[in-house]
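Here's what a typical entry looks like (Pentatricopeptide repeat-containing protein):
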Amino acid sequence: MASEKDTEKDQLAASLNDLFTNVSDMIKGELQGTNNVLELLEKMNVRVGEDYKGFASSITDFGMPFKNLFPNNQFVILKQLQESSLPLLSLQRRFSCSSQPDSSNWVQSNQLFQRHPRLQLFEKGWMKTLHHLKQFVAYVVVTGLHRNPFIMSRILYLSLVESEECNRIENSEFGIQIFRRIERPNIFSWNTLIRFFSGLDPMIALHFYTKMVRERIFPDTYTFTFLLQAGGPSLDLFFVKQVHCHALKFGFNHNLFVQNSVLSAYAIWDSAMDARNVFDEMSNKDVVTWTSMISGLVAHSNYMEALRVFKDLMADDCQPHPNVVTTISVMSACGGLGYANLTKCFHALLEKAGWIETDVSISNSLIDAYAKCGDLSNATRVFDEIQNVKKDLFSWTTVITAYGMHGRGLDALCVFSQMDPLHGLAPDAVTLVAILSACAHSGLLDQGLCIFELMWRRYKIKPDLRHYGCIVDLLGRAGMIKRAYSVVESMPMEPNLAVLGSLLSSCRLHNELEFGEVVLRKIELLKERGGASVLISNMYASKNEWDRVVNVRNKMRERMKGKVPGRSWIQVKDAVHEFVARNDVDPKLHMVLRSLEKLSTLL
């Protein structure tokens, strides 16, 4: 072993000796030939490998005596390729005092691009990481291309938008550094910053927009779209209205692209009136406009209005045809209403159009709609008709959910067992929520606990609040209140209303008033209490503790001020009737109450 190491050291020493001799000859002779330099660099890379880093550093740190600027560029690029640690500012500072690159220097740079195996990747646009991008920036700086604002804007886009998102904070710092070196940032540069920070920190995106306007750079259609993305669930409705006002001020009130973005933003915030006003004021509507309106209404359970909008779309021959997203939203509305007949009609139309065979998401939406309408047989039939190669994870999750909501836990377990992780069908967190919920609704205690234990060991998925909520519900339905409460206490995160509400329902089911009061005190600390007060009030009533019932009911009335009343839909023949809580002016209400009174006498 010792002799082999000595031999390697001798070879390395000989290589370094040849290397320094060649460099010395080049310096003494002041060689300017590009080919000699390229050959030397290739020799450095092949014969010396990683050990030439120190030599390259010494060349760049102690001065480069070449009259031609291009060899300087090569050494710095090689150093940056190996270390990728020299900051952009120091590189600019180092070359600010040197001679300016001329056109021949750029030609020689292109030769290096074509010959160097790693720089070829950049030429093809394969800069996937920040580490690679820094290498490319080093090349841009030393060749003088950093003075071109278009090139720097492109680098900014690569660093913020197209690079891998493994470290968004580091990307943002590097991107801001690039942005500050652009002499005259154009709208593309500003939009790139706003787009990136809209997903990272919306307030920073708003800050850059304000700064852009103050510098008299006028926004374009993309600016408002990125801003409205930033104002999604992170900010508030007031922010959306401010952006809408700015769009009108800058003359985008008839721009279809901007108006669609405004409409979607209002739909996200459940501002149906504002969304409808924007929708009605639009002179031109495309399929995105109609789909945004329908999907926004469906997302906030306004199913009847969503179907009315879809009816208007289909009634006007001048309007665009619905696309896949529109159809999925309509299917969700049918499922939310429990409108089985309309679901079957849509199913027939989709089969006639041939969409079911071409897009598995259509079949998935049909499975979900049929299941919510109570038609499990049609839901499973649609699932069985999907070719196995086309079934995606959502297909399996949807049919497991369908079995679970119909109390068919064993069938759900059978489907779950058919998922093969070796063929890309490993369950995700949502699938595990579906199967745990199915076990809870069917009383499959042992199977549910077993799956919960295997979540991390087999599937490498850490349980979150949804999974813990299913286990609490599973144990609570089985009457194991103490164990369910211990699960709540041992959770690695704070329980939310869904978890505590599930436990409180179990306490109500098994008349565990003592545990129910403890859980209620935890719920009182939450901002949203849901129907927890109703459960505890019923528990007090079952114990004939009427004073406490009155006290809880009074607190409920105080909290319910300003709440949106509940509503329900009932299908009678081909019509769907909507009933709203405490709506005494409905003309059909008295007929319903009289019929209900007659039925109650027969029970």
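Residues 2-29 form the longest helix (28 residues).

More examples are in the samples folder.
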